[in-house]
Structures are given as C-alpha cells and as structure tokens.
Amino acid sequence: MPINIPNELPAKEILESEKIFAIDDENARRQRIRPLRVVILNLMPKKIETETQILRLLSKSPLQLDIDLMKVSSHESKNTSKDHLVKFYENWDVLKENYYDCMIITGAPVEEMPFEDVDYWEELTHIFDWTKSHVLSTMHICWGAQAGLYYHYGIHKYQLKEKLFGIFPHELCDEYDFLTNGFDEIHNVPHSRHTKIDEKELAKEDRLVVLSRSKKTGSTIIVTKGYRQIFVMGHFEYGVDTLAQEYFRDVNAGKPIHVPENYFPNDDPHQRPILTWRSHANLLYRNWLNYVYQTTPYHIEKIEKAPLYQGFREDHGYAQAFRKEDDE
C-alpha cells in the first residue's frame, strides 16, 4: 500500500525516484476504494493445482480481490473434472463484456508445437486482443508469455537441446523498478520448459523492458513500460514439490529427464527440496497488485482508455488523470 505524506516533504522526491509509492494528502482524501477484479485464464491440464498456486500468491496482498476463472471453449480439458469446470469456470465468450484490473494467462504443455497448431490458438488470439481494451494489466506465464510475445511483438521461440529444468539464480536489471522493488540483486526462479525465446528479436523491441534475467535461462521478467503487459518466463507460483512431481512423473514414464538443477540437496532426488523463491514470488505479486491498485480507474470501464505502452512509471499524471475523470 502507498504511504500518505505531506506534498512538500523533501523525502517525497527521493522516494519517487526510488519508485516507492507515495501520495499527497489531497490525492489520498480523494481516493475511492473498490475490490480489484482479477481473471485467470487457466490453460494448464491440472487446473485445481494451478489455480491453487496462483491464488495462494494473490492472497498475500492486503487488497480485496474478486476472482473469475476463465477457460477456452475450443479445447476440452481431460485432467480436471467437468463438475469443477462447470461450477467454477466460464468461457471467454461469457466474460468478454467484463472489464478487469488484472489478468493472468498461465502456461500450457504445448510449447513444442508451433503456436498456430495449438487447437485453441485462434481463440487465444482473440483473448490477447481483448486484453488490450478490457484489462489494465495482464501477466503472461511461461508458454503464455512466449505466446503473448509472439502474437503481440513477433518474437519467436526455438527448441532447446534439453529441457530447461530447475531453480536458477537471476540478476536484477533495475533495483528501483516498481514490479521488482525489494528484490535481492540475485533471486531464484523455477523453470520447466523445452523452448526459449529469441533474445536478439527481444533486444530490438524498444516497447519492452527486461527486469530479470540469467545467462542460463535468458530474460525472465519482461514488461511494457506501463505494465499493461507482463511476461514471466519462469514459474514463481510453483510450490516446493512441483518440480519433484514433474521429475518423478517423467522418470516413471521412461522419458529422458535430468535431475532438476539447484533443487534437491546434493542433487539427490531422495532428499526433500528446499523452497528458495517464495519471498520473491510473494513480492512480485504484491508489487503488481499494488501498482494496479494505484493506477486503475475507479470506474473500471475506463480501462479501455489506458495507454498500452506508457504508464505511471514514466508519467505520474497517468494515475491522476484517471482520478480526475472519476471525480467528474
């Protein structure tokens, strides 16, 4: 949450330069509060496991969140009961008239296929377009991030020689960025994928900023300058046992798989792994929700007016313009 300080306090300018939320008395008195509306497009086969992991992180924020769960209509899930899907999920066609402060698009186990060969690709492209007018900030995860970068920016993926699998240390690219504010300079992120984006194509795209990367995994947290779009290549949401479950699943199926790197103590699968990324996962999601809370319009339908590539980080008038419109 932001701190409310006198407008003329000398510390205000310093805090703003460090990308710390500070609002003056006038804006604080004028603020109106409502729950943030969040929609999760869950493309994973085991939907209950994925939704639990994501909701666990969202719940760490002190903000009140209203959650909708979305599924695609052009693909039938075989690993989640129909009763659960009918009870808790809606198709995009049902939700597309809604506006949301935040959206999360998960990964999917289709990364080795060309994007256009995925059976729900056409529907997903409609959803990608819809987010630009109906969602203030969309976080794409793993394959969802690769798909989003490909569709919005033409950034391709390519096949790795072996699966990128384990917990990898990452370097922070900007210690004062809002989204990663409070991160250690080195932070761990789980990865589990067979593909990687083209870093040369990414470097040519000046609408995107890299916040976290490593030599082994490449760029991991990528954002537009106003956080309308966030692309996370790793799995901050993973629980301590997730990679172990994937490893033993593949071993039992006779698939070629190496022990996940930097995960089991002494690389011994018989030892319980240690959770080394939880604090940064919580911080990432808290920072994201806090940012959206400060910048979203009170009248949520005004989200469609928000600029796609420019925001509070570079233009402090962005959030104030929404508040002025709301007052009127």
TrEMBL record:
Report whether Ribonucleoprotein shows up as a keyword of the record: no
| Residue numbers marked as site, Important for acyl-CoA specificity | E111
Task: Provide the protein's localization.
Answer: Cytoplasm
The record's listing under Pfam families reads: HTS
Q: Kindly state which reaction or reactions the protein catalyses.
A: L-homoserine + acetyl-CoA = O-acetyl-L-homoserine + CoA
| Record keywords, A-Z | Acyltransferase, Amino-acid biosynthesis, Cytoplasm, Methionine biosynthesis, Transferase
Q: Where is this site: Important for substrate specificity?
A: S192
Which Gene Ontology molecular-function terms are recorded? Answer: homoserine O-succinyltransferase activity
Q: Which domain of life is it from?
A: Bacteria
* Subcellular location, principal: cytoplasm
Identify which residues the record assigns to the active site: C142, H235, E237
Recorded hits in InterPro entries, A to Z, give:
Class_I_gatase-like, HST_MetA, MetA_family
Q: Where does substrate bind?
A: K163, S192, R249
Which pathway does the protein contribute to?
Amino-acid biosynthesis; L-methionine biosynthesis via de novo pathway; O-acetyl-L-homoserine from L-homoserine: step 1/1
Q: What is its EC number?
A: 2.3.1.31
The family annotation for this protein states: Belongs to the MetA family.
Stated role: Transfers an acetyl group from acetyl-CoA to L-homoserine, forming acetyl-L-homoserine.
The record's listing under PANTHER family reads:
HOMOSERINE O-SUCCINYLTRANSFERASE
Q: What is this protein called?
A: Homoserine O-acetyltransferase
The uppermost taxa in this organism's lineage are: Bacteria, Bacillati, Bacillota, Erysipelotrichia, Erysipelotrichales
